[in-house]
Write a structure and sequence with these properties.
Elements lengths: L7 E5 L4 H12 L3 E4 L5 H15 L3 E3 L7 H15 L4 E4 L14 H29 L2 E6 L12 H20 L5 E8 L5 H14 L3 H9 L11 H12 L10 E4 L7
Parallel strand pairs: 1-2, 1-4, 2-3, 4-5, 5-6, 6-7
Helix pairs in contact: 1-8, 3-4, 4-5, 6-7
The structure holds nicotinamide-adenine-dinucleotide.
Length: 262
């Protein structure tokens, strides 16, 4: 029997990277899926159709910009209407910007806080009433090793991820007797477009070549000297979504190649 038979999941940031890997893993384990994220509409439709065909599940897409509270509320409503309920809420939408604090563009700082942190509040706020009614819920926020430790030039991102962990712990306590768990998954460096895109700015901020950024900044932090894979993160999300994880709540599940053990 598949672990998520009869379950439904809303996964933000699932047009790319970690969110997409989680949506795929959940659909393959029997869940119906609402995808969300930015991107080229034709590419998103191709991704949606392929996942529906290979999994045999209902796979839908609703656009919603994570900087817009009313669009987030509509996304939750659309998911409840079209899939019947939300059992699992995964918040993986996120952006990064690398810059010394004194040069950090104000709009970038605000956008990182809005997308990586505040949208987690709007999603949870809208989804919890339905989960409470069903007596079941799994809230999984994709934080980062940067929820536990800092790195220079990432002030907005580190602030957002520390905040997301604090938010998640708080709602775990509030919902502890409702059959709803809330946890963070905190990956180290995973090779996705988000990491690739920060290499040019890091080259500039640290005056390094691309290879130096990969070995002396990114993989330097990880004792394993390997990127975490999106499939490894998806496997952890699958565990947190499963019935076996009913007592795991308020946790920060680090999957960081030993980074934060140092
Ligand atoms: P990615 O760039 O591949 O995916 C990010 C997703 O977020 C995309 O689907 C994108 O469309 C969506 N998104 C961005 N802005 C949005 C907005 N305004 N509204 C709606 N959707 C929006 O990146 P990823 O590496 O898969 O990152 C996913 C999450 O994992 C992020 O929260 C990131 O901080 C976290 N994370 C990534 C790494 C890593 O090394 N890649 C490490 C730790 C944590």
């Amino acid at each position: 029997m598949m672990a998520l038979n009869g379950k439904t999941a809303l996964v933000t940031g699932s047009t790319s990277g970690i969110g997409l890997a989680i949506a795929k893993a959940f659909a393959q384990q029997g869940a119906d899926i609402m995808l969300n994220g930015l991107g080229d509409p034709a590419e998103i439709e191709a991704t949606r159709a392929a996942l529906a065909a290979e999994s045999g599940r209902k796979v839908l897409f609703t656009p919603a910009d994570m900087t817009r509270p009313e669009e987030i509320a509509n996304l939750v409503k659309a998911t409840e209407t079209s899939l019947g309920k939300i059992d699992i809420l995964v918040h993986s939408a996120g952006i990064q910007h690398v810059s010394p604090v004194e040069d950090f563009p104000i709009e970038k700082f605000d956008a990182i806080i809005a997308i990586n942190l505040v949208s987690g509040f709007h999603l949870t706020r809208a989804a919890v009433p339905g989960m409470k009614k069903n007596g079941f819920g799994r809230i999984i926020n994709i934080a980062s090793a940067h929820s536990a430790v800092a790195s220079p030039f990432k002030s907005a991102y580190v602030a957002a991820k520390h905040g997301l962990l604090g938010f998640t712990k708080t709602i775990a306590l509030e919902l502890a007797t409702s059959g709803i768990t809330a946890n963070c998954i905190s990956p180290g460096y995973v090779w996705t477009p988000l990491v690739e895109r920060q290499i040019p700015d890091t080259m500039k901020a640290r005056n390094m070549t691309k290879d130096q950024v990969i070995s002396e900044v990114l993989l330097k932090a990880q004792p394993t000297k390997k990127f975490v894979t999106t499939d490894e993160v998806a496997a952890l999300a699958l565990y947190l979504a499963s019935d076996a994880a009913a007592s795991v709540t308020g946790a920060n599940m680090l999957i960081d190649g030993g980074w934060t053990a140092e």
